[in-house]
């Protein structure tokens, strides 16, 4: 066995290991779930480790095997246009990273999304490497293995949907995402495999293999149905129409041509009836869902709702596109930097845009806008050119190579479906992996066609001679440097990061805040990696959850620890709006629970600073105004609180929290009619005016104003809404005593005795209170 064969087997093993990654987070054994969350982060880490090792081995082999080098150059020359297109995409991503608004984040990305230039660059190199290394006879093994992984992913989705082995595979109450992430991403992943399975099914002669491909494509179709992703269904319909209506006539036996014509007519009729049904559903939607046969099946109603035009138009992504277009106009050449969509979105966020809501977006849900915003319009054009050119070249293969006609046709359907799908969505690790593998496979088909036509051996010999490079003198030094770099890269920026993330996950799994917070603080102190900001954000979220259940003194102590962490986050990523916002919110919490006038003044100044920095990044983010108004409300500067609330409402009058802040400010300023209208508007715009915290806030205002009539109504609401909280009944009884209504004071005091009959201490307190009544 030759050395080359051993190397090739090693490369193949690496490819198979990489293609296994989409399903790897299904492994429930030992502490692996802690290491494999977030799933895409763990997958990209393992992908980078495996691919870095095989790339290093490849370089070693290339330095020692000069003839091996020439074969690669020959293959590259055969697809030189696509090589330079991929290189151009790589370079534009690199340049946009260098000139990014947040370079480190653009390079490394966020673990939750697992994006960034580093990972995207790896995908491009992986594509070229797969094209160069995988031999013709091995491509079918690669695709069969990929389809098997797709089957495993689909089976897990079935388990999730029907709650099978729910202790192992997390069940879902809506649409399964399996190990890929969301239902939308799973649908895109299976869309790729559906058409590959269909092409192989039609091409394969072996009965057993045909049954395998038939089973896989039916299973993939079943998951696509239960996932009900509108963008994928649109992509599937258009791709299927292309696949069917442009099916190669030369491959159709005479006896099948009439049945195929019937199938085309049937497909067209189904499409036509579907269009009629769609318009009918939109015209008579209310009557349809009120039909007794439909209303008895609650699961059908959400499906029908998703198929309506109204539901589609209410999707906030169309509003996000308007904001993304403004961001592209500001930085059209190199964009804002990979993974920096949130910076652009925050700057141009405008709540007056229809259906935008109050969400924070880090993706445009449109591949052209995503790439244009983050890497510039030229990068988006190159990305589109790659798939347009592939489609064109595959058409040429269909004309010249009968044996690859069907596969090329299937690949065209895949790329068409992909472009349609990601026009409304985005990619993740698993979809990028299959996508770039498909590109590599397409390049292989194109290269085969071109090399088949090359017959000039003299030219070939000359090229081989010209490529000869003398590396003997420096190769040991080169390999040593590369090996050191490889070890450092794998350890410091992959394994160590994975371990730190696992420690963070272990801390988050603890139910007791007294245990989880110290664990998280230990992780923060020992990090020192590109994960620092991500860890800080998760620590802030943990603190936010814990202070809701902690005693007040412990909450204050915890918030004081959280603020320096978030301040450090603003140094790492000064363009991240939410860090500044949460600093202001936590600072307000300390302000609200401080009695020292000097300390309150300093805290007020800090809150001003944090909220102003947040507004510099997102000038129309109403939540910032609402929280800033609280700063002045706490220090009883009600005029300033009202002024800031009005600034919020000048942007858009749909923010209930701003109406509430203006309402309670007006109550304190004795503007009762204005306050009544403000509070009504707050409730109308989604603010919970009858929540416990809201009612307590009103109770304090009315007590301070000695407005006992309104106070009694508020306290009665509190007592009736939270009957197991004795203090609300006690406050209600005491309020009635203050106004001289001793009958009701006695009534509600006795109510406490009924609710808490077996508590001697409460009974004594109530009896002592009753003795004070005339």
Per-chain topology:
Blueprint: H1 3-19, H2 32-35, H3 39-64, H4 66-78, H5 80-98, H6 103-108, H7 117-133, H8 136-161, H9 183-203, H10 207-227, H11 230-245, H12 254-283, H13 285-290, H14 292-295, H15 300-306, H16 309-313, H17 317-330, H18 341-348, H19 367-375, H20 377-400, H21 405-422, H22 429-453, H23 457-467, H24 475-509, H25 513-525, H26 532-546, H27 552-572, H28 577-592, H29 597-617, H30 622-634, H31 638-651, H32 656-668, H33 672-684, H34 692-704, H35 708-721, H36 726-738, H37 742-755, H38 760-771
Helix pairs in contact: 1-3, 1-8, 3-7, 3-24, 5-7, 5-20, 7-22, 8-9, 8-10, 9-10, 9-11, 9-21, 9-22, 11-21, 17-18, 17-19, 19-20, 20-21, 20-22, 24-25, 25-26, 26-27, 27-28, 28-29, 28-30, 29-30, 30-31, 30-32, 31-32, 32-33, 34-35, 35-36, 36-37, 37-38
Overview of this protein structure:
By secondary structure, the chain is mainly α. The protein has a domain at 705-774: Alpha Horseshoe (Serine Threonine Protein Phosphatase 5, Tetratricopeptide repeat). It has 38 helices and no strands. The chain has helices spanning 3-19, 32-35, 39-64, 66-78, 80-98, 103-108, 117-133, 136-161, 183-203, 207-227, 230-245, 254-283, 285-290, 292-295, 300-306, 309-313, 317-330, 341-348, 367-375, 377-400, 405-422, 429-453, 457-467, 475-509, 513-525, 532-546, 552-572, 577-592, 597-617, 622-634, 638-651, 656-668, 672-684, 692-704, 708-721, 726-738, 742-755, 760-771. Helix 9 (183-203) runs parallel beside helix 11 (230-245), helix 17 packs parallel to helix 19 and helix 35 packs antiparallel against helix 36 (726-738). The longest helix is centred in the middle third of the chain and has 35 residues, at 475-509. Mean pLDDT is 88; it is low at 455-469.
């Amino acid at each position: 066995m030759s050395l080359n064969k051993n190397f090739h087997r090693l490369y193949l093993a690496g490819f198979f290991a990489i293609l296994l990654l989409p399903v790897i987070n299904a492994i429930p054994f030992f502490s692996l779930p802690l290491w494999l969350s977030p799933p895409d982060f763990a997958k990209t880490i393992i992908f980078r480790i495996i691919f870095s090792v095989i790339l290093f081995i490849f370089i070693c082999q290339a330095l020692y095997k000069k003839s091996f080098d020439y074969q690669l150059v020959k293959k590259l020359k055969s697809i030189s246009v696509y090589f330079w297109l991929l290189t151009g995409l790589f370079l534009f991503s690199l340049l946009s990273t260098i000139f990014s608004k947040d370079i480190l984040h653009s390079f490394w990305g966020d673990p939750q999304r697992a994006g960034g230039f580093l990972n995207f660059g790896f995908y491009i190199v992986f594509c070229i490497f797969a094209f160069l290394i995988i031999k013709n006879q091995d491509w079918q093994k690669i695709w069969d293995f990929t389809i098997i992984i797709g089957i495993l992913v689909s089976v897990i989705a079935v388990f999730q949907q029907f709650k099978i082995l729910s202790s192992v595979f997390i069940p879902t109450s809506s649409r399964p995402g399996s190990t890929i992430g969301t239902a939308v991403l799973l649908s895109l992943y299976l869309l790729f495999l559906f058409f590959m399975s269909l092409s192989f099914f039609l091409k394969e002669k072996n009965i057993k293999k045909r049954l395998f491909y038939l089973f896989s494509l039916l299973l993939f179709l079943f998951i696509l149905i239960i996932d009900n992703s509108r963008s994928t269904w649109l992509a599937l319909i258009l791709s299927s129409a292309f696949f069917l209506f442009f099916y190669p006539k030369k491959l159709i036996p005479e006896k099948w041509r009439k049945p195929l014509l019937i199938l085309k007519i049937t497909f067209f009729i189904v499409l036509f009836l579907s269009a009629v049904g769609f318009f009918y559903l939109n015209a008579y939607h209310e009557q349809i869902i009120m039909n007794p046969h439909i209303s008895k099946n609650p699961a059908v109603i959400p499906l029908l709702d998703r198929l309506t035009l109204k539901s589609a138009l209410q999707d906030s992504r169309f509003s996000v596109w308007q904001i993304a277009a403004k961001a592209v106009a500001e930085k059209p050449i190199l964009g804002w930097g990979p993974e920096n969509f949130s910076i652009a979105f925050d700057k141009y966020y405008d709540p007056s845009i229809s259906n935008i809501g109050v969400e924070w977006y880090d993706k445009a849900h449109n591949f052209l806008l995503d790439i244009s915003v983050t890497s510039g319009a030229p990068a988006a054009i190159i990305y589109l050119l790659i798939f347009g050119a592939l489609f064109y070249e595959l058409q040429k293969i269909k004309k010249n190579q009968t044996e690859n006609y069907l596969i090329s046709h299937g690949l065209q359907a895949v790329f068409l479906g992909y472009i349609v799908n990601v026009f409304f969505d985005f990619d993740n690790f698993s979809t990028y992996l299959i996508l770039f593998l498909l590109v590599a496979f397409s390049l292989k088909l194109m290269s085969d066609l071109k090399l088949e036509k090359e017959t000039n051996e003299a030219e070939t010999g000359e090229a081989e001679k010209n490529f000869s490079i003398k590396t003997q003198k420096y190769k040991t030094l080169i390999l040593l440097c590369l090996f050191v770099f490889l070890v450092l890269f794998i350890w410091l920026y992959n394994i160590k990061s994975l371990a730190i993330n696992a420690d963070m996950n272990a801390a988050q799994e603890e139910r007791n805040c007294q245990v989880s917070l110290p664990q998280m603080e230990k992780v923060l102190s020992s990090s020192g990696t590109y994960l620092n900001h991500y860890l800080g954000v998760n620590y802030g979220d943990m603190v936010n959850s814990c202070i809701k259940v902690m005693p007040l003194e412990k909450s204050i102590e915890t918030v004081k620890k959280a603020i320096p962490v978030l301040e450090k986050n603003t140094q790492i990523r000064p363009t991240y709006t939410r860090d500044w916002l949460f600093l202001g919110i936590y600072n307000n919490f300390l302000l609200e629970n401080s009695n020292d006038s000097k300390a309150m003044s300093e805290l007020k100044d800090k809150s001003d600073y944090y909220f102003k920095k947040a507004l510099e990044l997102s000038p129309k983010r109403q939540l910032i105004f609402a929280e800033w108004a609280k700063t002045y409300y706490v220090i009883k500067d009600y005029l300033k609180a009202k002024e800031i609330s009005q600034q919020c409402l000048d942007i858009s009058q749909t923010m209930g929290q701003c109406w509430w802040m203006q309402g309670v400010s007006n109550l304190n300023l004795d503007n009762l009619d204005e306050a009544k209208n403000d509070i009504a508007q707050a409730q109308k715009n989604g603010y919970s005016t009858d929540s416990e915290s809201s009612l307590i806030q009103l109770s304090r205002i009315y007590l301070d104003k000695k407005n006992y009539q309104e106070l009694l109504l508020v306290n009665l609401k509190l007592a009736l809404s939270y009957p197991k909280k004795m203090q609300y009944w006690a406050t209600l009884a005491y309020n009635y005593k203050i106004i001289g209504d001793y009958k009701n004071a006695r009534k509600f005091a006795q109510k406490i005795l009924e609710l808490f009959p077996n508590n001697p201490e409460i009974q004594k307190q109530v009896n002592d209170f009753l003795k004070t009544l005339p």
